[in-house]
Design goal:
By secondary structure, this protein is α/β, with parallel strands linked by helices. It is built from four helices and four strands; from the N terminus they run αβααβββα. Strand 3 and strand 4 form a beta hairpin. Helix 1 runs parallel beside helix 2 and helix 2 packs across helix 4. The chain is globular, with a radius of gyration of 14 Å.
């Protein structure tokens, strides 16, 4: 894994500040802190990708969760059904995927493409609502 100083700093900031903050928001939305597992290897050589992870995945997921968790039934479904969120960086749109199985929401996004490499909060919400 060949990573420059800027990438290492960005990853450290995400691990210590950004993601814990997002997990806290998830807890406020649904009542349970749902952890992130990030495939750092997949974005270690891609500083551009690192800049977009929070907005493209974490922010969109929270928007989707806010919609689902408007009532207690939704909050309970998320608390019981969503156990972990996995993020992975892929290089192009063709490699992107969004899945929710066994309590794990997995988003493979082309982060370096910015908005072109993301799933919308509507898509995320639809998938969760089908499976929760």
């Amino acid at each position: 894994m060949n990573m420059g100083l800027n990438e290492r700093r960005k990853i450290k900031e995400m691990q210590e500040v950004t993601l814990p903050g997002r997990v806290k928001e998830i807890e406020e939305i649904c009542g349970a802190p749902i952890p992130y597992q990030v495939d750092w290897e997949s974005m270690a050589d891609d500083g551009q990708a690192l800049n977009f992870v929070d907005n493209i995945s974490c922010h969109r997921l929270n928007m989707a969760l806010r919609m689902i968790c408007q009532d207690d039934m939704g909050k309970q479904a998320v608390r019981e059904g969503l156990k972990e969120v996995k993020l992975k960086n892929v290089k192009d749109r063709e490699s992107m995927s969004l899945s929710f199985t066994g309590g794990v929401l997995e988003m493979h996004c082309a982060y370096a493409l910015g908005a072109g490499g993301m799933f919308s909060d509507g898509e995320i919400r639809q998938l969760l609502e089908q499976r929760l």
